[in-house]
Amino acid sequence: MPHGIPARTRPDLNPGARAMRALIVGGSIAGLSAAHGLRRCGFHTVVLERSDGALLDRGAGLGLDLARLQAVLGRADGLLPPCIALEGRAIHTPAPAGHSPARAWRTRREPGRHTVSSWQHLYEALRAPLGPVVQPGVQVVGIARHRGGWRATTQDGRVMEADLLVGADGHGSVVRRHVDPQAVPRYAGYLLWRGLVDAHAAGDEARAQFLDGRLHLFAQPGHHMVVYEVPPARPGGARRLNWGWYTAASPAQQAALLQRAGLAPHTLIVPPARLPAADRHALVSRAAAWAAPWAALVARTADAGGLFVNAIHEFVSMTQPDAPVVLLGDAAHLLSPITGSGAAMAMEDALTLEHWSSHNSTAGDSAQHHWRSLARAMAESGRAAQQALLQARHWASHALGVPLPNDEAVPVSEEKP
């Protein structure tokens, strides 16, 4: 017998409307954000997350749009995650040729405000209010249409039924494989070396340079680096520095790195514990040619075990079927972190789904029309993601020397036919 999700009638529909059930596959930023909105719309909502336990430390620093997060949480009462408001940014570039010493840099300061936090803090803020709505350790292995809705089969043999299926299960989405099997992540031609380290372990030079309330950017042909402070892991804890270093790497170099780490060919992240010592040492040696604060920060992070690397992959699914299923977040569009839009787009996808759910009936003879209207609404998100993808590719070509893919070598202002 299927383990159906207990039903609850949406309060915004007329009394004759049938109960609606939403099944969200994936319990990261997109899935949790969707759960908040769908519950407000009266859907009885269940989130299935394949990882067993809390998803902590799955990312480092990130930019945070507080207004968007407040809309997702439905509150503005101070229960938001810890964050830091950076005032302006400092852009560091090599001094003109002929200057001595070879490490001489010049700095340009620009105004602006950047609110930053960490993936961990954002996740906890979204996860805590949902309680048992999220079921950890449940992996969905198959989905199928069933009586106008969906039936999902889990690894332990359970069968769950729902009226609305939400695929928020990341770049390897089982839901996307069903609705858009042609959308497969493609390696983008560069790596993002990342570090998260307690400020007291970063060294005097790094603390003096980077704990100044600014976003720091280092730019040199073939390299792009960013450094900023993020909130402590826990209240009263140590101040922390987050950094990222983008470098070009051929597909063969990326594959060799994953092989040395003993990871599958399409793995996106090499965590600190799997990063080979030879690769850590090589990165520290490369950083030694840079300005002293940056070189020290990389070396100290490696010593503290806080160094990891992302193999940047990307894709955008433009398929949103006119059926009760929707893809959100990385399941719908995987973008480079250089766009700064991963978490923001995941939350915006969820808000779009909530807006549609609160204004449309999904029962009766008009159900098909409304699923089509949802597909059109989510297509707008896909177009925005596609534009961000093109911009990231042109940035990588200009800043890192990564060749443009043959099928995407078009100006960012043009749309692909």
Q: What is the element layout, followed by pairings?
A:
Layout lengths: L20 E5 L3 H12 L3 E6 L11 E3 L2 H8 L10 E11 L10 E14 H9 L6 E3 L3 E7 L2 E6 L4 E4 L1 E4 L6 H6 L6 E13 L5 H7 L4 E6 L2 E8 L9 E9 L2 H10 L8 E2 L6 H11 L4 H12 L3 E10 L8 E3 L5 E2 L7 H18 L7 H34 L17
Parallel strand pairs: 1-2, 1-10, 2-6, 4-12, 10-17
Antiparallel strand pairs: 3-5, 4-5, 7-8, 8-9, 11-14, 11-16, 12-13, 13-14, 15-16, 16-18
**What's the total count of β strands?**
18
User: What fraction of the residues are assigned to beta strands by DSSP?
Assistant: 25-35%
What class do helices, strands and sheet pairing give? Answer: alpha/beta
The main sheet comes to: 10 strands, mixed
Would you identify the regions where 5 or more consecutive residues have pLDDT less than 50?
1-16, 409-417
- The value of Rg in angstroms is 23 Å
Put simply, the count of helices is 10
Structure description:
The protein is of the alpha/beta class. It has helices at residues 29-40, 66-73, 119-127, 174-179, 204-210, 251-260, 277-287, 292-303, 342-359, 367-400; strands spanning 21-25, 44-49, 61-63, 84-94, 105-118, 134-136, 140-146, 149-154, 159-162, 164-167, 186-198, 215-220, 223-230, 240-248, 269-270, 307-316, 325-327, 333-334. The strands form three sheets. Strands 3, 4, 5, 11, 12, 13, 14, 15, 16 and 18 form a ten-stranded mixed sheet that branches. A five-stranded parallel sheet has the order 6-2-1-10-17. It has a three-stranded antiparallel sheet with strand order 7-8-9. A hairpin with a 2-residue loop joins β12 and β13 (223-230). α1 packs parallel to α3. Mean pLDDT is 86; it is low at 1-16 and 409-417.
